[in-house]
Amino acid sequence: MKRRILILHTGGTIGMEATPGGLKPMAGFGPLLKRRLGETASAAPLPDCDVVELDRLIDSANLQPAQWPVIAGELVRRWEAYDGFVVLHGTDTMAWTASALSFMLRGLDKPVILTGAQIPLTAPRSDALENLEMALILAAQHPIREVSICFGRKLLRGNRSRKIATDRFDAFDSPNYPPIAEAGIKIALHRELLLAAEAKAFFLPEHFEPEAVAVLTIHPGLSSPVVEVALSSSHLRGVVLRSYGVGNVPEADARLLAALGGAVARGVTVINTTQCVFGAVAQDTYATGTALARIGVVSGGDMTLEAAFAKLHVLIAERLGPEEIRARMVQPLCGEITTTA
Ligand code: ASP
Fold it and tell me: Cα(251) to centroid of ligand 1, in Å?
């Protein structure tokens, strides 16, 4: 039987058109896409597709955590009716949404593949159809029980992905995890890299508190009074620290450490990720890292910023206590972190 895939269009360059004010989501993209897919379907083995558009299409630079459960909800409402799901999304925050979806749709039994384009479908030299066709073929033919990103001839684990290039067609990479599939003349799926099947445990919060999670990037000259202000919000429950190298911060700045330690003592989970593209945090390597462990900062291992941020948001929305959140942040929930044990 021919597989049936739902394409959910959320916005992004793939469906944009030029306006005097720059590229913007175009009206009527859904029907246009159906027509274009119909034309190619005769030549390529594409599954049957329905296209659904969000009421408000956005440039994904405008995306807020509040939109994550909206996107997930559109998929979950139609879960039983389709064999797989392809989400068209802007590239700017695609890795953030893919990460969030992976934590909300834990134990999913069907593929959810995000894709988009660097050049709109309707413009010359667009990469839209190539990305979309690969996503559709993978969504229809393979038992990929995870949220992934299909872009530039690669399929990447969603919560390991990052946007790495502004203008290259292979705009995404998953620096700490190999591509799940790669396309040459044939599409090679690396089954051994896929998540194992798990019991379905979907969790779609009604509300993400936007101020619950903050990102703090360490840099030379970072002002500890500024950090104190940033950490003072009563809504704050989690911080993703972006430290140097294997997890180092200027530990000579006692006021900075006191601000971080004070936040941890108030029940804020501070998770340490590296600014480096490749590799993991190892907080016990230098004195500048052990100082963080002493005040209760948790190592984020090789998690991406996007995954750590989305994971914190979802665990906080689950209303778990700080101890529980800390414990879960260092354990893989859906392949987002490498454990050494
Ligand atoms: N600003 C666009 C977006 O993220 C970029 C893109 O889709 O490539 O929606």
Answer: 38
Instruction: Write the CB contacts of 24 (distance below 8 Å, at least 6 apart in sequence).
Output: 16, 17, 59
The confidence score (pLDDT) of residue 237 equals: 98
Domain range holding 317?
213-329
Residues 312, 296: contact at Cβ < 8 Å? no
The reply to whether 13 belongs to the active site is yes
Residue 82 · residue 6 · CB < 8 Å: yes
pLDDT value at residue 225: 97
Q: Is the pLDDT of residue 80 over 90?
A: yes
Asked if 244 and 218 touch (Cβ cutoff 8 Å), the reply is yes
Clarify whether residues 182 and 230 are in a common domain.
no
The DSSP symbol for 145 reads -
Would you say the CB of residue 269 lies under 6 angstroms from ligand 1?
A: no
Question: Do 73 and 182 lie in a common domain?
Answer: yes
148 and 86 share a domain? yes
Count of Cβ atoms closer than 10 Å to residue 239 Cβ: 24
Q: In the listed set 149, 178, 202, which residue is the last one of a domain according to the structure?
A: 202
Ligand 1 close to Cβ of residue 92 (< 6 A): yes
Supply the mean pLDDT for the chain.
96
What is the token pair recorded at 214?
Answer: 């903050």
Query: Distance (Å, rounded) from C-alpha 340 to C-alpha 61?
Result: 35
Q: Is the CB of 25 under 6 A from ligand 1?
A: no
CA atoms within 13 A on the CB side of 120: 18
- Please state the domain count of the chain: 2
| 310 pLDDT more than 90 | yes
Each residue's pLDDT tens digit, 242-271: 999 999 999 999 999 999 999 999 999 999
Does 301 lie in the same domain as 270? yes
pLDDT class of 42 with cuts at 50, 70, 90: low
Contact between 58 and 11 (Cβ < 8 Å): yes
pLDDT tens figures, 140-150: 987 899 999 99
The answer to whether residues 118 and 153 touch, using CB atoms and an 8 Å cutoff, is: no
Tell me which DSSP letter residue 304 carries.
Answer: -
Report field, pTM of the whole predicted structure over 0.85 = yes
